[in-house]
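Researcher: Here's the sequence for the chain we discussed earlier.
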Amino acid sequence: MSTDAVHPTNRLILDVCLLEKSELRKTLAGVPVVEAVFAHTGVQSEIGLERQAQFELAGIAMGEMASVLERAQVGLSYRVQGFLNRKSLKSLKLRLHLTHMSPIAVDVLNALTD
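Model: Thanks. This is the structure I predict for it:
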């Protein structure tokens, strides 16, 4: 039996702007946590047409990823990876649980001449 049948895929990769982040805190078990809000703006292709995609998404980083998010600068762009889950047991709102985060390099010289 394939592991996909046991563990269906839930993986998201987005280019985002970090809008806000909380201070580092620890859970009762001592696990470091940082929460954040990300914004994504882009153009996607759907049935041969370009469609604007623009939204905000709550995120959370735990453990080692919390220190990565803590060092990230609000207002800068990042490529984030993770999985979606409910914000809490009683909520159906989604939140991105970060598993990877890296800055997106901007080519300033070409951006100024475009």
